[in-house]
Amino acid sequence: MLHDRLLVEPETDSAERQSTAGLVIPATAVGPKRLAWATVVAKGEHVRQVDVGDRVLFDPEDRAEVDLAGTDYVLLRERDVHGVAESDEADGSTGLYL
């Protein structure tokens, strides 16, 4: 990866979601634009705040897709990442850094 680029593997969406009230929302329901989670698999030399293995939050509309060895990846700039979820090895909790 060059410069400030990230190669991420997007998480697959489940077919149905469940609201906090317990209502089942089918996959065909159209809602507001949502951000998506992905796992960083490679990073460029100028990426400063994201490491390989981190979960990142990004806008799925602003992306460049690439197929490598039959797996779909997304190419992003570091500035296109909205948040990073890093797991704390000490206590096992997850923190979200926006």
Tell me what you see in this structure:
It holds the Pfam family Cpn10. With 98 residues, this protein is an all-beta fold. It is 0% helix and 46% strand. The strands form 2 sheets. A 7-stranded antiparallel sheet has the order 6-7-1-4-5-8-9, with no helix packed on it. The chain has a two-stranded antiparallel sheet with strand order 2-3. Strand 6 (64-68) and strand 7 (71-77) form a beta hairpin. It is globular, with a radius of gyration of 15 Å.
Give the SSE order as H and E letters: EEEEEEEEE
Give start-end ranges of low-pLDDT stretches. none
Counting H and I runs of at least 4 residues, what is the number of helices? 0
What topology, given as strand order, has the largest sheet? 6-7-1-4-5-8-9
Count all strands and give the number: 9
Give the overall shape, derived from the CA principal axes: globular
What profile does the largest beta sheet have? 7 strands, antiparallel
State the end-to-end distance: 24 Å
Strand content: over 45%
Helix content: under 10%
Rg from alpha-carbon coordinates: 15 Å
Indicate the mean pLDDT: 80
Q: Please identify the structural class as seen in this structure.
A: mainly beta
